[in-house]
Structure formats: structure tokens, C-alpha cells
Design goal:
The protein is of the alpha/beta class. It is built from 15 helices and 14 strands. Keywords: Carboxypeptidase, Hydrolase, Protease.
Length: about 450
Amino acid sequence: MHDVREIVGPVDRSDVFPTVDELSEFADGLVAAMPDRVTVADIGRSRGGDPIREVRVGSGPRQVVVVGNPHPNEPIGMATIRHLLGRLTADDAQTLDATWHFVLCLDPDGTRLNEGWFAGERTRSGIARAFYRPPAAEQPEWCFPTTWRGKEIGAPLPETLALMELIDRTRPALIVSLHNADFGGGFFYTTGGDPDYWTGLTDQLTAGGVPIFDGEPDVPGAKTWAPGVFELPRFQRIAETLVADGVEPLEMMHGGGVRDYAAAHGTALLVCEVPLWADPRVTDDTPSGRSLANVLCSTATAYEEVADLVRGVLDRVSDRSTGRSPFARALTDTVRALRGNATAKRGATESRIATVGELFVEDYVWVGVARLRAGGMLLRLLDEQAGRAPSPGLAAERAHFAAIFEKWCGDIETNAPGHPIPVHQLVTIQASAIVAAVLRLRADLPV
């Protein structure tokens, strides 16, 4: 822990996330100041024409790839990369005998659609109003080529192809994917390790004042290594688990994950998930009086209600859609995902009594997040369409749905607003987890 703290160092106190352009300019500044220590290369282009930029630091034999913003609504990773770049370039000894490859932002197109909330007051409903998350088929980290029951699947995006090229070129010992949740506790996915490693990861959460999420993993088929640490499974197990739950895997996923692709190189994976807000209720293990199956069934019903509502609005305004709107594609996929997730949750047979924490997570993390995300993107779609071709019917549709969305927001802000976690604490957690993993690599310990 002392070595980790020494390398990570103090993080600047700021509650602003860097934008795509700001992080890129920061990297360019490092290259200009230290061309002998830092190099920047464009390893591909996004669908919208933005460069996918790799920043390389260090010259050690172990290759480490750190991926920022694989999901564009999760910008903590970009702030973490900015901090680590500042630390690692200050002293060659800080690179831990590794060569680091930082992918500044894997999805710059989607990230730009979220930048409206990167600065200013951070509330759950405020972020929802400027929110965007792409459909599964447009998420670069989950469309790698793989096979399923003899069928080739996965159509890599340009962003995915850029990451594939980097993986094949570097054959990394470790890939770190930086994520964040909206709300709840913090957790990690790994491909291995041991109890000391897993405890070391969750100790970073405790030190940063973030509760450890000890519920079920959100990736189907994932094993629990320790409270707050889960195994990152490969596509085959995820798909088999979905089949067992009565869900068609290819309706939920459009390709393999980065673990599937990097497995050929024996690469270890670490996924850091930290929340923007925390609430102590997520860890309340008091019995709720309801069976877990009953709680999950209620979640399934709520998912279906959101899906039906969004689908109805999309159907009524479909004649105005050009098919090119990222919000329309995202919402269509949201409906599909909600219905698939509802099927999986309704199929649960766990008869034990759910804890108060599990009940809270289902109501205000999973259902609350589903409502805010779908609602925010739907309003952005309606505003987009109104800006292109305003009409009384469209205005009435927006007014009707806006009233529903405001009720959802009011429920969240009254009953589960969460405590915003300062950005510097979140960066410290992610940076410390990365450094802890690389220190173990250097010591030839499993990660």
C-alpha cells in the first residue's frame, strides 16, 4: 500500500472531467515538454472521424494497456489517465519496469455527446438530461470477433479494430479497462489473482470512502472471487448463462469482449468500476422481509414498463426519424436490453430473503438508472426532432413524457440522490488499483 500511495501521489482536487479535446491537448503538451519520455500515435479513427490516440510512456519489458472511456458516459477513466500520465512522465522510475500504452478515449464520438455534464453541479437527474450511451452493437469493447455454437459473430467497429491492432502489436501482460457506475458501490472484475490481490483492490475503495458492492455481478456467468471482486468471464460462459435464463444471447450481445480477443496473448484483465455517487444503504444486510425472487420479479416488471413506455413513444414519432440519430438507435437497443434483462430477472428462483441493501439496489440503482437513462435520451431525441421539424403533435408528445420523466427525477432526488464522490477520490481509487496490479506483475504475482 505504501508503494502504491508513493507512485499515485496526491490527486488535484477538481470536480470536472476532462473532455476529449482537453485530454488530447494535455497529452500533446507532455510530448512537447518531454519528447524523450512520451510519444503519441493515432492508432485509428472513430466512425465520426476522431483520432483514437495512444500515449506511450516507459520502456520496460511488460506491456500494460489502459483504456479510457470504452463506455462514453463513464469519464472517470479519462481523469485517471490524465493523472497517471502526469505521474509516470515525471520520473522514469515510476513506470515500474513497464511500457504503458494509454488509449485516451476509445469512443470519442459518444463521449462528445456526454460532455454537457462533465462540468458543473453533478446530480443524478442533471446527468440524465445530458446523457448518452450507445447501443450494444456500437460499444467498441463488446464487438470483438468470436464464435458461438459454430457461428462467427462480432462485427468490429473502427474503434475496436484500433484496439485489436494495439493488442496484437504489444501483446500486453495486462489490460485495464476504466469504467464507472452511476450509483451504488464500487467493484472490480479480474481474470485471476489471489485473496491478497482482491483485498488490495477493495482496500482502495474503503480508503476512498466508497462502499464495496457485494451483490451479484452484472455480467452473466461471472464468479465472485471476493466481496466486490468478480471474475470477468469469456463470451461462451456469458452466453451459456443467458441461455439457461431463457434469454437468446445474440439478442443481448453482438460480439466478444476484450478478454476473448486478448486471451491469445495470455493477457490479464482488470476492470475498475467506481460510482459517481454512494449511499450506505447499498451495504445494509438487514433482512427486508421479501424473497429475492420476489424483489427481482418486481424489477422485471418495472423494466418492462419502461420498455413499453419508450417503445410507444418511438412508434408514435417513427415517421419523423431519419434512422441516423444516435439517440433513436440507443433507445431501440435500450428497449431490447430491458426486455431481455426482465426475462432473466423474472426467471430467478432464489427463495432466500433479500437484504435491505439488495432491495435498495434493485429499486434505486437498476430501475432508477434505467428510468433516468432512457428518459434523458428520449427527451434528447424529441428535442432533436423538434429542432429539425417542429409540430404540435411532437410538442404534445414531449410534454406528456416530460411530466413522467420529472416524476422519475423527483423520486430519485427525494429518495436516492446519493452522495457525490469527489472526482479526486475516484481517480485515486482507479489509479491505485492500476498501480497495485502492475506492482504485482513486476513481482510475478498473479493478476
